Amino acid sequence: xxxxxxxxxxxxxxxxxxxxxxxxxxxxxxxxxxxxxxxxxxxxxxxxxxxxxxxxxxxxxxxxxxxxxxxxxxxxxxxxxxxxxxxxxxxxxxxxxxxxxxxxxxxxxxxxxxxxxxxxx
Length: 121
Fold this sequence. Notes:
This protein is mainly beta.
């Protein structure tokens, strides 16, 4: 009887002391510019883990962030602002190389944002 209780206590302590590592996923933020004018636009992307980064596009038709290794379930957002006439932007967030969220932004909309908690399963 006492031996079985000690065995149960031992296994309980082993299970409690095992630290489960938080699962991570790879996140990439992308913006494509689909109009002929190639306007300059401001980009802000955020995650709970890495904070906020802001940049201006370089009149390129495509911008992609570096790959970020983030913890599942955390909040991320991608926002863009453009005040030049005649533009069409598409915002994308990719998770592990697969499209997770997207949004279209067309003139005269001045800004667009996509956000949410990363998948946790």
